[in-house]
Amino acid sequence: MNMLLALRSLIHARPNRRPVAMLSLAACLGGIALPAQAAYPDKPVTLVVPFAPGGSSDIIARNMSPLLSEKLGQPVVIENVGGAGGVVGTQRAVRAAPDGYTVLLGSGSEILINKLINPRLTYDATKDLAPVIFVGTGPMVLLGKPTLQASTVPELLQLLRAKPGTLSYGSAGNGTPMNVAGELLKMRAGVSMTHIPYRGAAPALTDLLGGQIDLAISTLSAANAYIKAGSVKALATTGAEPSELAPGIPAMGKQPGLAGFDLNVWFGLFVPAKTPKDIAQKIQAAAQQVLADPSLRKKLADQGISVSGESGESLRKFMATEQEKYRAVVKAANITVE
Predict the structure, then answer these.
(1) How far apart are CA 269 and CA 134, in angstroms?
(2) Which of 240, 246, 307, 322 is the S-S candidate for 262 at Cβ 3.0 to 4.6 Å?
(3) Which contacts of 162-168 are long-range, i.e. CB under 8 A and separated by 24 or more positions?
(4) 238 and 142 in contact (C-beta within 8 Å)?
(5) Is the peptide bond before 41 cis (omega within 30 degrees of 0)?
(6) Total domain count, the chain
(7) 118 and 147 share a domain?
(8) For 7-53, how does the pLDDT look when each residue is reduced to its tens digit (9 = 90+)?
């Protein structure tokens, strides 16, 4: 009733008395309790994995999500959105409302390489997504079929030079980090081999075991069981230094003529670019606590992932360096979308 009287006074007041009436209205409104904005998060959070279940991204997400749920105080629900080398799932995250309720578990393929090999993509993940936290990195590994007539990188290079173009290598698909690593090896060593793209690491490894292809480049997490069983020849990891996650396997960057060879897989959490900074910071803080958990770090190490936990800004700087590596190889090898 008081508010109605104040409104009436404002409307009917003579011009020289309207300021007084407006003050009266402000005083009335000041006593009204406006609904408070809910603190983030107040409902479940969706964690998008842009690949089918079972791969490295999915493994990381399923290990992180229960602990993230605990830290955020809301369920973190995994949504696998596979297709087109990660494009479909990434689009799902790019188009989501920038409110912190959709988070992407992203990696080099969908965040950087897809745009380089297909400029017609309707999104640019480096602009349309904001990095929240650097989850970690993992080595890739160059593998040979059981009957390959080479057991070391120097022996392989000698074989490739003796039989140019006759050996094949499989990857998880065109434009994947595995494909980029294979083309980088060809360029750096001056050798020729035929790339056979697959729809994922699993079918490539199956054909390697069966001898349908001579070589494969895979994530360590996908190949580890076969390496430990002695079913394939592990020739080298694709980093500059040997990896503690792959004891006994030499680094490509330590091989004669390949100094500085350094290309691994990496993972991070991303949100739509316009997500408020305070919400992104809450996600980052929760994820940092999760990634500091010793049991989680061990689980991921067992899967071939070395945890980082560095900030989103650190990930952004790392991505800038990786993008230039990818760009140089994609251009020189003329890697295009399938």
Answers:
(1) 7
(2) 240
(3) 164/191, 164/192, 165/192, 165/193, 165/194, 167/193, 167/194, 167/214, 167/215, 168/193, 168/194, 168/195, 168/196, 168/213, 168/214, 168/215
(4) yes
(5) yes
(6) 2
(7) no
(8) 445 445 554 544 444 444 444 444 444 445 579 999 999 999 998 88
